[in-house]
Amino acid sequence: MSVTTADYMFAPEAETMPRHKLADLQLKRLQQTLRCAYRSVPHYRKAFDAAGVVPDDLRTLEDLAKFPFTVKADLRENYPFGLFAVPRSELVRLHASSGTTGKPTVVGYTAGDLDTWARLMARSLASAGARPGQTIHNAYGYGLFTGGLGAHYGAERLGCTVVPMSGGNTEKQIVLIQDFEAQVLCATPSYALNIAEVAEKEGVDLRKGSLRIAVCGAEPWSEAMRKELDERLGVRAHDIYGLSEIMGPGVAVECQERDGLHGWEDHFLFEIVDPETLKPRPMGETGELVITTLSKQALPMIRYRTRDITRLSVEPCSCGRTHVRILRVTGRNDDMLIIRGVNVYPSQVEAVLVGFPNIAPHYQLVIQREGMLDTLTVEVEAEPGLAIGQEAYDHIGRQVQHHIKSIIGVTCRVVVLSPGELPRSQGKAIRVRDLRKKAGPA
Ligand code: DLL
């Protein structure tokens, strides 16, 4: 059947490249990328000129700190194709993010870019434990979102059979996972949980089936959620990270150690900066992740501010891969809530809720304004089958509230709803309902 060597790597030479060689390769590719961006993209020429730098000023990797950042607004302002470095005739694919406000951000790929993406995604799936010959059930959304097609081409490149299911139609997903005997599930963590829940409701025990691995990403998730997915699906769930502006899924992934995500440094350069001062932070410190692409042809990205908060580690990993580890992304700068002066990420609340006795791992945070103060209400659901009355629900709510206060330090109200009341995710879950804008005066 399938090949199963514990230390199988898709690209062993690249994945175990000594760090000094990686640095040499990065410098060479970075110089090429800067030259190409300066020559072919008016936005970069203007930005470099304004910062008083030219590509030849980059002699060491540290010199990158002299170059300007790129932000999401730059993509919007140059909508749709203004940041592309190649003629449109060379583009073979476009993706776009939905963007809740204003124009979507559009990203493009040459044939060479798609080839690199497929290889990096194949590398990522293999690092998570997928093997040639296995079947991958792909429940990431197909379409303008990069999840579906990104995982699809990577899985094919690895030599797997792909079931291109996309998101939704959960009952059918469960039938096909069983009938086609997939070993690998690709889905957002919230949708993977939805699949587990619907299977349980139907009396299907996926733990007894073929699934062995889940490759979950596209949204923040907690260790508690990982434990939940491992137990309820009978898998080892691995975290995978990526963003469309840089490529899509497959920028970084957890290996068998599940202790940080290897970021593929032969194709990307990772920095951590202070989100306020934008000064680079030393290795190991927490801050905003900034990524520069080193091989992208259609859309080179120079110092792209991801808004994702994390830290990096170059401690050797026992898997043998030498590439930097990006610690779990707990949230985006933009997702951080400030409730009565306390900073809270939804994933911190998740870590408290998931696994808490008598409640199900579904939640939403509701933000309202009362007078001058923002208030947080955490909506959770009672565990299915818990036949108790309102009084007991209120009691559970008070317990959860107490826990959130003691662990995160934020005061909130917890409302326990009946099973099934909260909306279920089909892709990226909506964790926050912000009612402030509609309420009170501006
Ligand atoms: O979400 C690409 C992707 C698809 C990654 C499938 C993994 C799996 P975007 O829609 O552009 O691309 O959203 C990118 O999602 O900046 C993070 O804020 C968040 N994100 C992605 N992966 C993770 C993760 C895809 N593993 C944005 N943990 C990023 C936490 C994640 N946040």
What is the compact description of this entry?
With 442 residues, this protein is α/β, with parallel strands linked by helices. The chain has helices at 12-15, 19-40, 42-51, 72-77, 111-127, 146-158, 170-179, 189-201, 223-233, 346-353, 390-408, and strands spanning 93-97, 105-109, 135-138, 161-163, 184-187, 213-217, 236-243, 248-254, 261-263, 268-273, 287-293, 304-310, 312-313, 325-326, 331-332, 337-339, 342-344, 359-370, 373-382, 413-417, 432-434.
Jot down its keywords:
nine-stranded mixed β-sheet; GMP Synthetase, Chain A, domain 3; 21 strands; disordered N terminus; binds 5'-O-[hydroxy(phenylacetyl)phosphoryl]adenosine; Rossmann fold; globular; 442 residues; alpha/beta; single chain; 2 domains; 24% strand
Give me the count of strands: 21
Q: What structural class do helix, strand and pairing data support?
A: alpha/beta
Task: Report the CATH C-level class of the largest domain.
Answer: Alpha Beta
Low-confidence stretches: 1-5
Outline the structure in words.
By secondary structure, this protein is an alpha/beta fold. It folds into 2 domains: 1-267 and 295-303, ANL, N-terminal domain (Rossmann fold, 3-Layer(aba) Sandwich), CATH 3.40.50.12780; 336-439, 2-Layer Sandwich (GMP Synthetase, Chain A, domain 3), CATH 3.30.300.30. It contains 11 helices and 21 strands. The protein has helices at 12-15, 19-40, 42-51, 72-77, 111-127, 146-158, 170-179, 189-201, 223-233, 346-353, 390-408, and strands spanning 93-97, 105-109, 135-138, 161-163, 184-187, 213-217, 236-243, 248-254, 261-263, 268-273, 287-293, 304-310, 312-313, 325-326, 331-332, 337-339, 342-344, 359-370, 373-382, 413-417, 432-434. Strands 4-3-5-6-7-8-9-14-13 form a 9-stranded mixed sheet, sandwiched between helices. It is globular, with a radius of gyration of 22 Å. The N and C termini lie far apart (63 Å). The model is unreliable at 1-5 (pLDDT under 50). The structure holds 5'-O-[hydroxy(phenylacetyl)phosphoryl]adenosine. Residues 97, 140, 145-147, 217-220, 239-244, 248-249, 306, 308, 329, 332 line the site of 5'-O-[hydroxy(phenylacetyl)phosphoryl]adenosine.
